[in-house]
Design goal:
By secondary structure, the chain is mainly alpha-helical. It has six helices and two strands. A two-stranded parallel sheet has the order 1-2. The longest helix has 19 residues.
Amino acid sequence: MRLASGEEFSATIRPRQPLGPATAANAELPAEVLLGGEEWEAFVTRWEAFVRPDDVLTTWGHFHSGLGVGLTLPESRIDLRIAAARVLRKRSGTVEQCAERLGLSVSPTEAGRCARRIALLDAMARGLRETAPPVARGSN
């Protein structure tokens, strides 16, 4: 999602290996949706067309940005977990716990755990942009 313009990028990527027994439950999506996702190469082509050099990648910790190996990712990054902890003046917890502490709730337009978490991150980024001290707005 781009905060300034509202542009969104969405993808369900077909697994390249057999679907693990708990994957659908963990993703909160039916196995058919995952298996019907787009091929990796098609996803990469769409992503490369979407991402811009001046985008700022917003993450929750560092783990997820490591999943983008082989993708073009923006150089500028903001870790919302750190920004939220500064605002809360304590550990932020999970995305869901932090959103609750900040009084946020969302109704994602798409199904699944990822869509819900991205909607929470979007709400947090918008809220923190308005209320965070300047030090929490810098990139990491």
